[in-house]
Structures are given as structure tokens and as C-alpha cells.
Amino acid sequence: MSSGSATGGREHAADPFLGEGQTYGAVTGAISTITLDHPGQRRWLILFACALALLGLFAISLSYLLIAGVGIWGNNIPVTWGFDIINYVWWIGIGNAGTLISALLLMLRQTWRNAINRMAEAMTLMAAVCAAIYPVIHLGRPWYFYWNLPYPNTMLLWPQFRSPLFWDAMAIMIYLTTSLLFWYIGLIPDLATMRDRARTRFRRQAYGVFALGWRGSSRHWARWRQAYVTIAACAVPLVVAVHSGVGLLFAASIEPGWHGTIQPPFFVFGAAFSGFAVVAMIAVTVRHAFGIDGIVTAGHLDMLGKAMLGTGLATAYGYLMELFTTWYGGESFEQALMLERLGGVYAWSFWGVILCNVVVIQTLWFRAVRRNSLALFTIGLGVAAGMWFERFMIIVITLHHDFLPSSSHLYTPSFWDLSTFAGSVGLFLTAMLLFIRYVPVVSIFEVREMAVPDRSS
Amino acid sequence: MTAPAARPYGVVAEFDTAERLLEAARAAHRAGFRDVEGFSPFPVEGLDEVLEEPPSRLTAIALVGGVGAATGFFLLQAYAMGISYPFDIGGRPLFSWPSYVLSSFAVGILGAVVSSVLGMLYLNRLPRLHHPIFEHKGFIRVTQDRFFLRIGPDHERFDEARIREVLGSSAPLSLRTLQL
Q1: DSSP letter assigned to residue B55
Q2: Which of B106, B119, B142 has its CB closest to that of A215?
Q3: A452 phi and psi angles, rounded to 5 deg
Q4: B133-137: long-range contacts at Cβ-Cβ below 8 A with a sequence spacing of 24 or more?
Q5: Does B145 touch chain A (CB under 8 A)?
Q6: What does the pLDDT look like over A288-303, one tens digit per residue?
Q7: How many Cβ atoms are within 10 Å of A254's Cβ, its own excluded?
Q8: Residue-by-residue pLDDT tens, chain B, 180 positions
Q9: Rounded-to-integer distance, Cα A267 and Cα A255, Å
Q10: H runs (alpha helix) in chain B
Q11: What is the ipTM score, two decimals?
Q12: Which chain A residues are within 8 Å of B103, Cβ to Cβ?
């Protein structure tokens, strides 16, 4: 592992991923206190009120959508995929990094994941829920969404198994289930800790039920670990399947700008990129809000910065290849589209992408920037915005004029597009805040594994 | 099954480090005890080897679940598209198997994940909200910072003095006998 090499000149050659003096008891106390005593109750309440307000907006937007139909959105012919698909792809992308951090690094035995895997998994789960809502609500008649599932029905009809749309629906649902189970299985030992430390009877019982009677038996641990690693091994290829499935939805069409073999891998990299950005933002926030610098260390921020830089460069390669193949392919519609991206009506989205996803992340080459919380948060926010611009660019610029002059129309999001998007952010924030409040934000037992025994007691 | 009023569950020793737990487990194993179980706040590397736990069947369960689900879903798609509802799309063959692969793979993953979760719970006999070990007053620290080793009655024989002697030699923080 090369990550620790940069700390060579320091006076204490301690673990860069754990602060000084972290004993089993200290780690357990520091993390479970966040849930049990909840320091920062007032700040949490203020944030929660804001998140609930946005969630209320979401409820209003969806209710109006159900009453009035998708005509309330800015979608038109030919821009049939507007904010609904932009936001779907954006949310599902954010979800991907959680699984990568948690599952991939677990299998690679990278112990630095221990302090951030729980938040990353929670982020994955919430983002996947936000993502899953979009394809359903854009159906027009969302209450028939189950027609997409293979079940014996009175119409004797099957879903179209040969369509990427079906693959996509399956992939999202399975991704949601897998993320939920992976998160929960990883949570069981910590729920037992909460059960044993909770002071009120109600809390003891509530955590106790979810802990399933966990008692840390050596036999339990052995099987638990096997199950955990098996699920991780399953989840990693699923990440690739989920997002390349989204990429195939685009690549399988003949639209200029979409019909390319680069789309599936390009989507996967972009997804991991935006996910790492959001994980970095969450890690920085939690670290500061609860003062757990000894558990989520500058070393973690450093690794997250590197991950953002790496996936960002891979994404930038995708942009470069799109430009190159368009030029080299010599196809006039493709070239017209690329000119439209560079200087057309929606050029702001292209240049926003270049600025946020290519230019700004170059600062991550510097160690001081990666270890600076504020800088990392700002860059993460920029990347999240940049990736949203990218999805806007891919979807709207391609659709707003393709092959025929007759299928040419501009797209402007309506108020309801914006309110639904803001509302889905509210859903994400509400769920994340509830998670921070009621579930240990950091995997206690995995960090404990890295800590030292307390000799004084 | 006979259930007498008080059967011994075992003698439980408490330790403050994983090394001490391993040491005590080795001593117990050397002394010939077989009903030995460790309890720890995180998985202790090497404890299974010391206790000679048989490898679990969990990976096999996950494999069967995964391959079974993937195969089943592939066959379902082949049946639905080729036999039950043949539908010509652009002259493509009805058994266009490459397009069945991605979703079969995803469903296979789901099968593997669900069967490993259920398999883990089944093999661990969870959920079980109460257990004799919870009678131990200090046991709540097993989820925080303490390690425990229990030696139970082997072959229905419970030689408490002998067990206490073996466990006592590892200098435990506490030593307690629990009844079932």
C-alpha cells in the first residue's frame, strides 16, 4: 500500500488512518456517542427542518404530477428526456462510489475504508432510492410501473426482455436490494453495540431487535465475514452492470452523441467520479460536525481526493475520446452535434463540465489541497455540479436537434422540473440526516479492529 | 429432550485483548476441551484455526443461489420470448440469447446475495434475541472492548474445577460459571 509513504518525514510515524490514542473503548465511545447523545442537536434540527421543507416540496411536486401528468414538465418532442432522465442518471451515478469504496476496498483489504464505508453505503442507498423514483414518475402512468416486471398476469404478456430499458429496471431494483442488504449486514455488530450502550429501555429494545441477538461469537463472526465478503464480491460487478446498463440505453440508440461504444465504461467512470465527490463532502461534514478527526483523519480525505482525481482523469479521457472519434469518424451529424456542444445554445453545460470536472480537479494533484477539508468539500460540490452539467449536455444537446430539421426544438425546464429536482435533494438529505441521527455513522467494529487495547483499565 | 432445572452452560472467562483470548483458546484446546467458543468485539484473526472450526458451507450456498437464479432467469426469458410470446423485432432471432445475459447476470447476483444473507442467518441460528451468555453481567462489553472465552460441558460431562484451572492460567479479568 503506497498511501502512507508521504508521511515519512513526520515525527510520529503513526497510522495515517487513525489518530493517536484510539483504544477499543475510545473508538466505541466516540462513535456511539454521536447516535446516543447527539452532540449538535440544534444544528441537526435546523438542517432537518430545511431538508423536510424540501421533502414537502417533493411531495407537492409529485402529487401535482400525478394529477396533471408529465405535461407539467418542460419535456417536448424531440426532447423527450429532460430533467427526469438527467436526474435519474445523476443520482444513480452518485450511488455507485459507495459500493466501490465499501465492497471493492473490502476485498482489496484496504483498511482505510473502515472509517468511511458506512456513510458511503448509506449514501449509495439514499441516492439509489432517489434515482429509482425518477424512471417510475416519468412513465406517465407511474402506478403501472410493475408492468415492467416478469410476473404471471391476466394479459398473458411479458416485459420486453430484449430491451435495455428492462435490463435497467432490473439492475436498479437489484442494486437497491443488494445495497440495502450489504449495509444492513455490515450494521448488525454495531447495532449490538448500540443495544448494549443505550440507556433507555425503548432504545435498547429497538436496537436489540435489529441486532438480531448478535453476541460476537467466533462462529458467528466467521460466517458473518464470509457472507459480507461474498456480498461485496457480488456488489462490485453489479456497479458496473447498473451503470453500463444506463450507458447502453444511450449507446443502443442511433442518436448522434450517444451511439458509441465508449458510453458504458464512460458512464461507469463518471458515476464513480460523482460518487467519490459526494462521499468526500459527507466525510468532511461529519468529521467537522462531530469532531471525530481521530477516526476520519486527513489521511482519509487524502485518499478520497486521490480517488476523485483518478476517476476524474478517466472521465476526462472519455470527453477527449468523444471529441477524437467524432473528428476521426467523419460523420456529419456527429460533428454538427459536437459543434453544438462547443458553441451552441447549451454550450454553458459543456464548458461547465470542462471547468468543474477537468480543470478544477487538477488542484487535487497537490497534497495540501487533498488534505484541506474546505478545499475538498468545494471541489466535491463542483464535481457534483459538473457531473450534472454533463448529463444535461449528453441528454439535451443530443435530443434538441438530431437528424431532421423538423425534429428540432429547444428545451427549458419548467418550475416543476426544478421543484422535483430540489425535492429529490430534500429526500436524500432527510434520509441522510436520519441516518446520522439514529445509526452509527462510522463502522464501529471495523475501526475498533484497527485500534489498540486500553492498558490502563 | 430432558430439561433439568439447572444445567451448566459453561465457564466464561473475560480478557482485555485479542492476544489473551487466543492464548486462552490455545490452552483450552491443548487441555482437550472441544466445546469452546470465543466472543469478541471484532473478528479475531486465527481464532477459528485454534478452535478447529470446520469451514462453513456459506460460499457453496451463495454459489448455488447465484447460479440457480441466473439459470432460472435465463430460461424464463428464453421461454417467454421464444415460446410463450414470440414477437418478431426487426427480423432478429427469437432466441437472441446475448440480450438475456445482462439481466440473468443481475438476477444471479440477487440470488447469491439473498442466499448468503439467509444462509448466514440460518447457519448462525439468528435471529435469537436471548441466549444463556447474556446472563453474564459483564458480557455487554463484548460489543465494546472485552473478549470472552466459554468452555462448555464436553460430552455432557462438566468438570468445573478443571475448566477453571485451565482458564485461570491465562489470567482472565473475571471468571464466571453460567447455568443454562
Answers
A1: P
A2: B142
A3: -115, 155
A4: B133/A215, B133/B9, B133/B12, B133/B39, B133/B178, B134/A215, B135/B9, B135/B178, B135/B179, B136/B12, B136/B176, B136/B178
A5: yes
A6: 888 888 888 899 999 9
A7: 10
A8: 455 556 778 888 898 888 888 888 888 888 888 888 889 998 888 888 888 877 788 999 999 999 999 999 999 999 998 888 888 888 888 888 888 998 999 999 999 999 999 999 999 888 888 888 888 888 888 888 889 988 888 777 777 788 888 888 888 888 888 877
A9: 17
A10: 18-30, 47-51, 58-79, 98-123, 160-168
A11: 0.90
A12: 161, 166-167, 170-171
Asked if A170 and B106 come within 8 Å (Cβ–Cβ), the reply is yes
Q: Give the pLDDT confidence score for residue B137 in this predicted structure.
A: 85
Angstrom distance (rounded) from CA B94 to CA B86: 7
Q: Between chains, do B120 and A25 touch, taking CB under 8 Å as contact?
A: no
pLDDT in tens, A112-144: 888 888 999 999 999 999 999 999 999 889 998
A84 touches B at CB < 8 Å? no
The number of CA neighbours under 13 Å toward the Cβ of A90 is: 25
Amino acid at A190: D
What pLDDT score does A11 carry? 36
Give SS3 for B17.
Answer: coil
CA distance B168 to B175: 8
Q: Which amino acid, residue A84?
A: D
B178 Cβ under 8 Å from any chain A Cβ: no
Torsion, Cα of A278, A282, A288, A294 (10° steps): -100
Tell me which residue of A119, A124, A126 sits closest to A190, measured CA to CA.
A119
Q: How far is A270 from chain B (nearest CA, A)?
A: 21
Q: Could you read off the pLDDT of A166-186 as tens digits, one per residue?
A: 888 888 899 999 999 999 999
Q: Which residues in chain B are contacts of A248 at CB distance < 8 A?
A: 102
**What is the residue type of A67?**
I
Contact flag A213-B143 (C-beta cutoff 8 Å): no
Stated pTM of the model: 0.90
Q: How confident is the model at residue A456 (pLDDT cuts 50, 70, 90)?
A: low
Closest approach of B153 to chain A, Cα-based (Å): 17
**What pLDDT is recorded for position A14?**
58
- In this structure, are residues A113 and A106 in contact, taking their beta carbons and an 8 Å threshold? yes
Residues A121, A106: Cα–Cα separation, whole Å: 12
Measured between beta carbons, the chain A residues lying within 8 angstroms of B42 are 189, 221, 445-446, 448-449
Helix (H), strand (E) counts: chain A = 17, 0
